[in-house]
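Methods — Computational structure assignment.
A single polypeptide chain was analysed. Its primary sequence is given first, followed by the predicted tertiary structure written as structure tokens.
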Amino acid sequence: MDSWLVVGAVAAAGGAATALQAHFMGLLDRAGGTLESVFVTYFSGGLVIGLVFLLLRGGNLLPAGGAPWYAYGSGLLGLVIVAALSYSTPRLGLVAAFTIFVAAQFALGAVLDHFGWLGAPVKPLGPGRLAGLLLLLGGVWLIVRG
């Protein structure tokens, strides 16, 4: 089992990369447009992961064949995420855009957990979780209204 410090460091690096990526996509959005920003983001990332995938896995996609059908839509959802970040960050600012993003993630995550939808493990939405979500929504309001 991985140490929580290692996993936490990886998560923190991902969070920092997300903030930088959103900022860079916002710059691309302002310079050329949302579609151009999304294209550059996916094209450059696609080239890198394509090379890594060929080098480390030989291009073999067979292990991914056991995933449920809806899991293959993750790339389309990634397009929505990248486009929404590209569009919203230069207009709202990084903190406001990310606050709304995180609140939406938590809210949908709580629903998926509560009902066990799409293969999520069932974690009932108790009073503590509900209070946390309501506090989070209050935080969104405070940050966005500034």
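Note: The mean pLDDT is 93.
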